[in-house]
Amino acid sequence: MTAAAGNGLRVRGRVQRGSFDLDLDLTVRPGEVVAVLGPNGAGKSTLLRTVAGLTPLSHGTVEVDGLVVDDGGAAFLPPEHRAVSLVFQDYRLFPHLTVRENVAFGPRSAGVGRAAARAMADEWLGRLHLAELAARRPAQLSGGQAQRVALARALAAGPRVLLLDEPLAALDARTGAQVRGELRRHLRAFDGATVLVTHDPLEALVLADRLLVLERGRAVQEGVPQDVARRPATEYVARLMGLNLYSGSGSADGRVVLDRGGELVAAAGTGGARVLVAVRPAAITLHAARPSGSPRNVWPGRIAGMELLADRVRVDVAGAPAALVDITADAVAELGLVEGASVWLAAKATDLDVYPAP
Amino acid sequence: MATDAARQRRTGGHGAPAVLGIPALVAVALLLLPLVAVVVRAPWRGLGRILSDQQALEALRVSLLTATSATVLSILLGVPLAWVLARVPLRGVAVLRALLTLPLVLPPVVAGVALLLALGRSGILGRLLLHSFGFGLPFTTPGVVVAETFVSMPFLVLTVEGALRSSDAGLEEAAATLGASRLTVFRRVTLPLAAPSVLAGSVLCWARALGEFGATITFAGSVPGVTQTMPIYVYFAMQNDPEVGVALSLLMVALAVLVLGLLRDRWLRAPGRR
């Protein structure tokens, strides 16, 4: 509908509520999808509420297509004048209206006549394959259907910025996977800026062009999904992406002295700077006795726990450093691993990804 | 064995202990016996004549007109007030809410006195009204409406406010992000979702207005065809012609039963609420 490409979304500023302090710096271009990842209480939902106009900035600015909608003071455009649609985690469909009336709500509020708004709603329902649900009430919808209706309702309002708060969190795993695929298609077709909040890394990797990781109100990492997945900046991101992450001081010969004890040797020197070392759990091997031969990194440890994943076992090994190690189920049997058992860990220098700490 | 146990449960298990059962029976008698008496003692044979009596019909007309007007007025003023109490984060709202419930516990005669002092011909505001427009509320039909509204509007306000406060403000947020102005949000989301409570509050309000006696007779007097409502007419009839009083009382009981029936049928049958 609104084909004119603007400047997208720009947020720069802070939200302070008592002891909570959210520091924001985010730019989303039209057509771009940015996923905001973070643990509970990191400020993800507050970010969305701030952009939508439901929570004002303490200071700073929010711009939608070049228009300042909040400057932390007098210039505050209320939600209904922002052209920002928010798909809530719990959908918030109007229970007293039919699906069609829900979707027509945005156009009706914008002053479109009853018949025209109805036609627009039907068009969106058709596009999202919801046409046969038009006459139902929200109480008669499944979770996946309600999610799609909420998306149709948000898009039908003709927003320049689309916000999604944990869009798939309320769905069971199978429905979630199915809706995720469709959502990706619809987000690709949307020409405005999209911000998606999630704590599911897979959702972020599949849906987003760029990731922003928020922890305790601060952006701790930003980048394209591949980079964030490969080189996490914090332990939270590393755990999310299933990597071992160590911080330490590098040196010219490739040795890294780790902050929490232990030492690792990488393939290349790094100088004496602060570095992070990321190691995939599958790149570490376990041995009953000290292995002889090629691995440059060999250290003793003790089994702290084991968890059976789909096709392998993730072993939690205490030591200096501690590590998560993925091995096959038959290796567990072969090594006779039990909790508390002593083992040796080994990792090749070339399997260590060393990069400057942010 | 099993039947013995069942029989024992049937006779002993569900019986209330005398300490509770006897007061409960007394309470039932106290509440229901007078109503039964009205039905039993009503002059059924002369009912047609009494109920088609000119003055009785006039009183009925005044009652229905004023109670309905008071209810409409209460809806028009009370629903917005309930919204303000429930949604506007003003300091002192709690105090205001407490003050607004005062008419609920105030003796109605005192309410009438208060109304006279405020809106009577020499009242604070009443003098101004009389002076500027040559219009005085006491002893007029609008005066009855004002007295009934004063006493009955709090029922509606409290009912609707409670519903609004426990309703989902999230839906109003969602409506705002879809571009709805605050008035549109109220009209298309808040009000439809609160409709059952508005209906319930209106019925309570109407019933209270219909039964109003003290405030009305103090503030508006008892002018037949103008301010003489059913309860007032019944009161005077009991002194002159008790048969008429009892017959009209029967009519009021019937109306009350009708109101209860309406409440039961339509009260909490909310459209589409989860």
Structure description:
- The complex is a heterodimer of chains A (358) and B (274).
- Chain A has 9 helices and 20 strands.
- In chain A, helix 2 crosses helix 3 (114-127), helix 3 (114-127) packs across helix 4 (143-156) and helix 4 packs parallel to helix 5 (173-189).
- In chain A, a hairpin with a 2-residue loop joins strand 9 and strand 10 (218-223).
- Chain A folds into 2 domains: 9-236, Rossmann fold (3-Layer(aba) Sandwich), CATH 3.40.50.300; 242-356, RNA polymerase II/Efflux pump adaptor protein, barrel-sandwich hybrid domain (OB fold (Dihydrolipoamide Acetyltransferase, E2P)).
- A 6-stranded mixed beta sheet of chain A has the order 6-7-8-3-9-10, with helices on both faces. Chain A has a 5-stranded antiparallel beta sheet with strand order 13-12-11-14-20.
- Chain A starts with 8 loop residues before the first strand and ends with a strand.
- By secondary structure, chain A is an alpha+beta fold.
- Chain B has 274 residues and is mostly helical.
- In chain B, 78% of the residues lie in helices and 0% in strands.
- Chain B has 14 helices and no strands.
- Chain B has helices at residues 2-13, 18-41, 47-51, 54-87, 93-100, 102-105, 108-119, 126-133, 141-166, 169-177, 182-211, 214-220, 230-240, 242-266.
- Chain B starts with a helix and ends in an 8-residue tail after the last helix.
- Chains A and B meet through strand 6 and helix 2 of A and helix 10 and helix 11 of B.
